[in-house]
């Protein structure tokens, strides 16, 4: 029974999909399975009496001894071997089909025009549908690149690039919102069109620091001062606010949706995950593949997949062999290592605090030193963020988790580090009283974020150009040097790259309000990151020896993104509530607080509408809202429980079906083997035309045929 | 090549439609493609055999690791050289067509994977099969240890009667659960 259960899990295997997250049991496979089941039922001994009248037919006597194997029909078809089954459904060669037809000599149905047309229409429609769906898939950017990546480096690395593409879509939407709602009105309706572009004092450094011409450009908040649009409900501050708020809400929806779907996915797979190896081998090759390149790619795809599954299986075997003593040791070790991780986190937070303090107090005349001090907090953050994840990676190596868990745990620890660092940095900016007293503190804040974004990207680019590329060249140039050989080419470390993406996206969200064009910058940045990473991956990286599964990890990627988004929303919320907008710059210069803009719009509405809105925003509305939410939640929870029970029931049924089927197949096989031995005994006496070893035991008809003598 | 299409008599065409899963257009296209493999003066005869080497130059088969097996399975040649007549070729395309049933496809898949033609998939067959899938060169092959583990796994899952080999009904038992076997076991000209 246990074996049958394991077997039945195969059906759930197909749920796995690293990218699309489209779930749903394949109804087709279930149907097919039940059909096969019936087939099996039919070709079991009960049908033997029907076999008799086929025996003497010997339809293929002329070819029989030349290629006996080929000439045997399938047992499954035995039951409706009659005229009902179209000839084309027989696994025979054309000539044999003809002779079978002559044997049957039924009304020879010729294919009429109408039938022929109908069939070709059916096929044409199916082809069209396939083409359309393929074209839809083809519309997605970088599909080919992703496929190549998957083939060469496995699903795990592909999951990273898919995630990158998802972020790109997200930022594209951000760009559209910002451009449409904030940038266009600001540019179109400006009161004084004197945009002071470059002045004598500007330098390239401004591009890094966000000062000078950049500060006066639309990149920063200060540019979006209230403009000509003067409707009470259609003015630029309101549009600006609308853009930012709708963006954040949309992002929350998108990320939550993605996480929840993925979670549902892994939840369904959880504990039902079976490594259905024979399926991978028997159905692995896609016969549509053309071209040597594609074939090679598919080879390595299958190889990676098989290796991954074998690796996981070996790991589970090792886990099951652990003794109690080993478990205790392991848990102790894990406890110590977790403590170490926490200690490292705390000390790094202190380092950042220290750096921020120094940066604020030290002022230097020399531009280089002042630049250095300006950049000290970002440098500290980046250094910590660069070093600690590597440490975490090595630490997780000691903990003896499977590779997928190792990747995930490193990712979680590192994401806590990164986001906490960012949070601490933001907190220090807050604490810094002088920032709020600045002329345009929003610009200052935007600049800090801008610097972080720029520095992050610079570090990434320099790392690729100055570290990875020379390292690869050195390794290739001096293959004999033992030090270099030990160093080797780098491996593409997925968790770290994902971490970078999540971090930079969080930065974008945090800074969006104060530096609206950050969305555009990060779109550009993501594009560059994609191409640089692809280059690094293909030219400087070795494929990893060990693979890990992408599907669970991609859920975690989105989950960490949700973390980042929450941090951003909280930071923005605190900022909006704690500080009033500065009086001389930005869209809210005239209004006392950000929300005065909405109040002004509200006042123009008719009385009842105003009262309704007031009710919606008041505490009196909160109570019914919570009640309704609770109601919905309760119904969802109970629905979920019912569904769970149904799923369990279906699984049990599947197991039962499988057990039946396996029993029948087993019986079938033993029966056939018995027949085979009797046949081969009879055969050697009789003709000796074919050796028993060439006899195909499965084919019932042939098995029963030899009594007809002439067939062999 | 328009002239070659008319070489197929009407009744033969309709017979082919009856006996295969192919439509009229597909049969004509197959005929055209097949004629291209044959020298001009020989095109008239329907029972002409095209050697396997020529068949394998078709782009649809060229990079398929099972190409030789496919030819051998569908060949009706007495020499067992994998050469195909036009009707064999139609059989091949029919089995690999969109509309062929799962039964037909799984039957032929089994025979393609049965490298030694003994009617069951034993360890040697499975090893050959896996090598075809992962690539034949030394650095793309699985290690012997991995191969042993993999074959053990396959037999454990699929070999229901525990006789050490996978037979056709066991094979079809596995295939029947695969939702996309029908769509991947396909060659379209």
UniProtKB/TrEMBL annotation, chain A:
Protein's recorded name = Transmembrane channel-like protein
Q: Where in the cell is it found?
A: Membrane
What cellular component terms from Gene Ontology apply here? plasma membrane
Q: Per the record's keyword annotation, is Transmembrane helix included, yes or no?
A: yes
Q: Which domain of life is it from?
A: Eukaryota
- Keyword Membrane appears in the UniProt entry: yes
> Coiled coil: which residue ranges?
none
Pfam families linked: TMC (PF07810)
Membrane protein topology class: Multi-pass membrane protein
Annotated segments matching region Disordered? 52-73
Q: What InterPro entries does this protein's entry cite?
A: TMC (IPR038900), TMC_dom (IPR012496)
Q: Which organism is it from?
A: Synaphobranchus kaupii
Q: Which molecular function GO terms apply here? A: mechanosensitive monoatomic ion channel activity
Transmembrane residue ranges: 166-188, 238-256, 331-355, 367-388, 409-429, 518-541, 553-574, 612-637
Q: Which UniProt keywords apply?
A: Membrane, Transmembrane, Transmembrane helix
For this chain, the family text in UniProt reads: Belongs to the TMC family.
List where Basic and acidic residues composition bias occurs: 52-70
UniProtKB/TrEMBL annotation, chain B:
Entry's InterPro entries?
Answer: CIBP, EF-hand-dom_pair, EF_Hand_1_Ca_BS, EF_hand_dom
SUPFAM superfamilies for the chain: EF-hand
Q: Name one GO molecular function term.
A: calcium ion binding
Keyword tags: Calcium, Magnesium, Metal-binding, Repeat
> Which residues belong to any copy of the EF-hand domain?
101-136, 146-181
Q: Name one Pfam family in it.
A: EF-hand_7
Q: What is this protein called?
A: EF-hand domain-containing protein
Species for this entry: Synaphobranchus kaupii
């Amino acid at each position: 029974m246990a074996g049958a259960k394991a077997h039945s899990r195969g059906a759930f295997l197909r749920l796995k999909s690293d990218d699309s997250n489209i779930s749903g049991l394949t109804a087709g496979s279930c149907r097919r399975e039940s059909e096969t089941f019936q087939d099996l039922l039919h070709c079991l001994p009960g049908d033997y009496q029907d076999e008799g009248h086929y025996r003497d037919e010997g339809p293929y006597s002329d070819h029989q001894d030349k290629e006996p194997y080929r000439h045997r029909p399938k047992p499954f078809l035995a039951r409706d071997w009659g005229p009902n089954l179209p000839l084309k459904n027989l696994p025979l060669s054309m000539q044999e089909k003809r002779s079978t037809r002559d044997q049957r000599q039924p009304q020879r149905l010729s294919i009429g025009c109408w039938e022929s047309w109908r069939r070709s229409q059916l096929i044409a429609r199916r082809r069209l549908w396939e083409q359309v769906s393929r074209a839809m898939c083809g519309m997605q950017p970088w599909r080919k690149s992703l496929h190549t990546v998957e083939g060469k480096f496995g699903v795990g690395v592909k999951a990273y690039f898919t995630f990158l593409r998802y972020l790109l879509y997200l930022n594209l939407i951000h760009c559209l919102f910002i451009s449409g709602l904030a940038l266009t009105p600001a540019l179109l309706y400006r009161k004084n069109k004197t945009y002071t572009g470059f002045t004598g004092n500007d330098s390239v450094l401004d591009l890094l620091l966000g000062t000078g011409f950049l500060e006066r450009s639309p990149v920063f908040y200060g540019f979006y001062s209230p403009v000509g649009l003067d409707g009470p409900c259609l003015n630029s501050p309101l549009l600006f606010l609308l853009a930012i708020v709708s963006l954040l809400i949309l992002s929350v929806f998108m990320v939550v949706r993605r996480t929840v779907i993925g979670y549902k996915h892994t939840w369904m797979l959880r504990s039902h995950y079976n490594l259905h190896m024979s399926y991978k081998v028997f159905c692995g090759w896609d016969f549509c593949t053309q071209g040597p390149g594609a074939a090679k790619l598919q080879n390595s795809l299958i190889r990676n997949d098989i290796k991954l599954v074998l690796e996981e299986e070996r790991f589970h075997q090792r886990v099951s062999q652990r003794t109690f003593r080993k478990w205790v040791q392991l848990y102790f070790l894990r406890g110590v290592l977790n403590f170490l991780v926490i200690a490292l986190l705390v000390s790094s937070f202190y380092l950042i605090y220290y750096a921020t303090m120094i940066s604020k107090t030290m002022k230097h005349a020399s531009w280089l030193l002042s630049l250095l001090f300006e950049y000290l907090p970002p440098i500290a953050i980046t250094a910590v963020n660069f070093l600690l994840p590597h440490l975490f990676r090595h630490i997780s190596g000691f903990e003896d988790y499977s590779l997928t868990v190792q990747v995930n745990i490193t990712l979680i620890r590192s994401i806590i580090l990164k986001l906490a660092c960012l949070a601490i940095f933001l907190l220090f900016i807050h604490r810094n009283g002088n920032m709020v007293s600045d002329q345009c503190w929003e610009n200052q804040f935007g600049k800090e974020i801008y610097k972080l974004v720029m520095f992050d990207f610079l570090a990434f680019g320099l790392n690729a150009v100055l570290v990875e590329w020379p390292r690869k060249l050195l390794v290739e140039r001096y293959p004999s040097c033992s030090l270099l050989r030990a160093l080797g080419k780098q491996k593409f470390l997925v968790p770290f790259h994902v971490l970078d993406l999540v971090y930079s996206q969080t930065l974008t969200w945090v800074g969006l309000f104060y530096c609206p064009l950050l969305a555009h910058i990060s779109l550009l940045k993501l594009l560059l990151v994609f191409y640089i990473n692809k280059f690094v991956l293909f030219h400087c990286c070795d494929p990893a020896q060990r693979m890990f599964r992408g599907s669970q990890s991609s859920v975690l990627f989105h989950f960490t993104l949700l973390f980042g988004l929450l941090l951003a929303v909280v930071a923005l919320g605190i900022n909006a509530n704690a500080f009033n907008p500065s009086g001389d710059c930005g869209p809210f210069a005239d209004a006392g607080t950000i929300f005065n803009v909405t109040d002004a719009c509200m006042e123009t509405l008719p009385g009842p509408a105003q009262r309704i809105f007031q009710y919606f925003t008041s505490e009196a509305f909160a109570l019914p809202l919570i009640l309704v939410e609770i109601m919905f939640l309760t119904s969802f929870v109970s629905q979920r429980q019912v569904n769970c029970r149904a799923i369990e029931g279906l699984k049990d049924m599947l197991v039962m079906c499988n057990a039946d089927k396996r029993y029948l197949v087993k019986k079938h096989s033993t029966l056939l083997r018995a027949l085979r031995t009797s046949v081969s005994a009879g055969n050697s006496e009789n003709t000796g035309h074919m050796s028993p070893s060439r006899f195909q035991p499965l084919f019932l008809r042939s098995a029963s045929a030899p009594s007809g003598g002439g067939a062999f | 090549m328009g002239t070659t299409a008319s070489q197929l008599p009407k009744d033969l065409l309709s017979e082919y439609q009856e006996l295969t899963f192919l439509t009229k257009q597909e049969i004509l296209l197959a005929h055209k493609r097949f004629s291209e493999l044959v020298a001009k003066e020989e095109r008239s005869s329907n029972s002409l055999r095209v050697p396997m080497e020529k068949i394998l130059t078709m782009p649809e088969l060229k990079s398929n690791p099972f190409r030789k097996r496919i030819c051998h399975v569908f060949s009706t040649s007495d020499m067992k050289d994998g050469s195909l007549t036009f009707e064999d070729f139609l059989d091949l395309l029919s089995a690999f067509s969109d509309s062929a049933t799962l039964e037909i496809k799984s039957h032929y898949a089994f025979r393609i994977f049965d490298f030694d033609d003994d009617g069951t998939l034993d360890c040697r067959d499975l090893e050959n099969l896996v090598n075809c899938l992962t690539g034949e060169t030394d650095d793309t092959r699985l290690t012997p240890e991995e191969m042993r583990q993999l074959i053990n796994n396959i037999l454990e899952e699929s070999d229901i009667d525990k006789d050490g080999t996978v037979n056709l009904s066991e094979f079809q038992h596995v295939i029947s659960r695969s939702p996309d076997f029908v769509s991947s076991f396909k060659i379209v000209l």
